[in-house]
Amino acid sequence: MLDLSTVDAQLAQLAHRRGALPELAVLAEVTAAEAQLDDKRIELDTLVGDLRRELRQAEAEVEQVRTRRERDEQRLNSGAITSPKDLTNLEHEMQALQRRIGTLEDAELEVMDQVETQQAALDAVLEELATTRAKVADVTAARDAAFEQLDGQSGELAAERARLAADLPDDLVALYEKVRAQYGSGAAALRARGCLGCRLELNGSDLRVIAAAEDDEVVRCPECSRILVRTAESGL
Predict the structure, then answer these.
(1) Are 197 and 183 spatial neighbours (Cβ–Cβ below 8 Å)?
(2) pLDDT at 234 (0 to 100)
(3) Exposure pattern of 134-143 as b/e (b: 16+ CB <10 Å)?
(4) What is the rounded CA–CA span in Å between residue 36 and residue 46?
(5) pLDDT tens digit string along 90-129?
(6) What is the distance between the alpha carbons of residues 125 and 106, in angstroms, rounded to a whole number?
(7) CA 176 to CA 2: how far, in whole Å?
(8) Pairing mode, if any, of strands 194-195 and 200-201?
(9) In the predicted model, what is the mean pLDDT of the chain?
(10) What does the pLDDT read at residue 77?
């Protein structure tokens, strides 16, 4: 019974270690960082895409106005227009188109600057994201290796537990499991007149009752209700 209780304590310790691995906290941290970086990547990628479309539109508009001015210049230079009034109107139109080209080119340059700035930010995020993802992979591998080791130990202890439980009466195991579910451990040694489960010393009358019990009788701690296992060190 004490061996079974010891194995259960070891299994509980392994389960606690499995849930408190340092790699789990690190993995949660780097995974959260990865998610934040990926959100930023999507945001910047969308922004860069929008800016590039805006830049193409600006370039097309500049080209359209420039083509129109070139056409007017060809008309002016062809000599086909002889009316002074028409020539004046055409020159005014060409000047307006030139000013429009300047305005559009300034806007185009501004968008180009924005594209370069946001693309640089996107490149930086992509580099950081790649580094973070590599760290996630490394920490995941370390966690899995630790899991494998702990699960291997737990498997060996579980087999030992099954063997120990099979050697005990079914009703005793059932009582042990019920007590263990309530108090975390189902049995404890009675040593030096004290229960090692609740760490309390039993009074004289309780000890006399336990001492008078048959060797195969199940006795329980009057303080914590755990199954008491009597040994040569019980002090009875």
Answers:
(1) yes
(2) 82
(3) ebbeebeeeb
(4) 15
(5) 899 999 999 999 999 999 999 999 999 999 999 999 999 9
(6) 29
(7) 11
(8) antiparallel
(9) 94
(10) 85
The Cα-based distances of 205 to 51, 99, 101, 208, 236 in angstroms read 88, 110, 107, 5, 11
Which two three-digit tokens encode residue 60? 């097309």
The predicted pLDDT at position 87 comes to 87
187-191: strand order across its sheet: 200-201, 194-195, 187-191, 227-230, 219-220
What's the pLDDT at 125? 98
Token pair of 174, please?
């059932």
Q: Inform me whether the pLDDT recorded for 236 exceeds 80.
A: no
What is the arithmetic mean of pLDDT over 157-174?
95
Amino acid at 46: T
CA atoms of 159 and 79, how far apart (whole Å) = 105
* Burial grade of 10 (CB within 10 A; 0-12, 13-18, 19 or more): middle
Tokens (6 digits) for 91: 């020159």
**Of residues 220, 209, 201, 227, the one with CA closest to residue 4:** 227
Residue 187, C-beta contacts closer than 8 angstroms, at least 6 positions apart: 1, 2, 4, 5, 176, 179, 197, 226, 227, 228, 229
Neighbouring CB atoms inside 10 A of 106's CB total 11
The Cα–Cα gap between 234 and 115 comes to 82
